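Write out structure tokens for SMP-30/Gluconolactonase/LRE-like region domain-containing protein.
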Amino acid sequence: MKDYFKFLSFLIILGLNIFVCLSGLTIKTASAQAMDYCWIADTDNSQVVKISRDGTELFRSRIDHREPYGISVNPVDESVWICDYSSSQVIKRAADGSELLRLTGFNQPYCCSVDPNDGSCWVADTGNNQIVKLSAAGGEIYRIPGFNEPDFVRVNSHDSSCWVSDYGNNQVVKLLSTGAEVVRVGGYNRPYWLSPNPVDDTCWVADYSNNAVVKLNSAGAELLRLPGFNRPASVAVDPNDGSCWVADTYNNKVIKLNNSGLQLFEVPGFYHPYDVEVNATDSSCWVVDRWNAQMVKISSTGSELYRGGNFIEPFYCSVNSNSVWITDAPNNEVIKLNSSGTELYRSVAEFNQPADIVSDPSDDGCWVADTTHNQVVKLAGDGSQIYRINGFNGPSGIGLNPSDAAVWVADSDNGEVVKLSSTGAELSRTPGFIYPCDVAIDIKDGTCWVSDTDANTILKLDSDGSILFSLHIVSEPHGLDVNWSDQSVWICDSGNDQIVHLDTAGVSLGRFSGFLYPEALSVNQKTGYVWVADSDNDDVVKLTPGGAEEIRISGFYYPEGIAANPYEGGCWVADTYYSQVVKISETGTE
């Protein structure tokens, strides 16, 4: 998904059905039904929300996690602790996945480690530059400052000490169970991962940017420094024999070393392996094969026992004797597999960065471009799911023709525009685009206008999806909207810092300057006035039907979405970097 898709998509229904899309948002007018609600695609929160006209929340889709990273299972009761990075929370779940605790007061916690002796949990509170120790019940025992972006913690179950990779300081630190610091050693370059051996109290370190693996004694003295790796991201010691597994990330292989650091074997066939974790019961090793989006289980002798999983980009795992927990951060999910790879539990994330939304006046529901899930979803008016349609790749724009209830989708990463029936059946699929980001429907004839951002092109499709013509008159076009009364189209010619007005045949009716990378606009279907989100100028602009600037309103911070209010003459604005929605009157007052 392009980096201009930023924060919030929303759909506003005020008299006419008006929706705003493209997570930063492009706005479109969809239907002329009087409805008293608003659908919102809250992109970065990966949720869809429905509110009444007075702001009362009517529905919110469910999401259990937001970018979960660090995870640690307690082998005693099989509960699991999770660092929910983007929500700045630490969550504890039972073995069946039910939520036991949800703790706030953190700032982008990245890693955690359970002490099986008492069930306490150490947390790398990365954004606060602190290490926090929690009781099994979630109470804060210690909060230890003095770190610089600590990103990894690992408990030694033998003495309940905790080893810390102090990433920003390029140091490795050892804390006693009391929180006292007993070791701080330097000489590292972005140390990523630690694995203490409870048998002899040594600790293995993945010295990532030094391309080395290091073994320390309990006092922090260096016993081994092994070069020859390429960005080793993680290490995992097997307490049964002291051997160590290494994710040799940029060499795309996993290596097993003996206790003395000699290589026993290597296992190729990975693509950016990121996390390795040993199951001490049988000395097998689970590997997070990150860019293959798979989990792999390897026997103690290096044979592959399992490969699979339904992930987007798994990051970390934590192994118990008969199961493995995985965090799939981009998917906002936590997954549990048994020792054979069968899925036992998956947290709920109904949407993942939904970039666009359009209301369906037939049932007060909506259609959603669920971008990172690569799906299009139909919700009923109460928020219940009716259809979830696969076959897309990063869809970012969506529009509905209320005359026949057909849905048009800008299937951005596939370079296609797709037309669906009201029941989700595919009616047409038009290829040949580079990155279509927005669609606008002409309700009089069912044609569809498309802004192909990366091709610097505007195209018009007939109602069957055939290309009628293409116009190479724009640079990085974003939002566009059709005026129903005269079938003309208004376009954000973002790269040229202009707004373009074309008639239904594509003939220019005007080109208007004075903007700076405008990303969204919306036509008032009653008056023909056009509201523009002048994004890089941090302004909102009102144009007359002839394109003359009538009002310019400052005080925004990169507005990316806008929706005209046909009843009152004003507009609603998605003020992206201020993370707010602003209502503007017809005369430009807030």
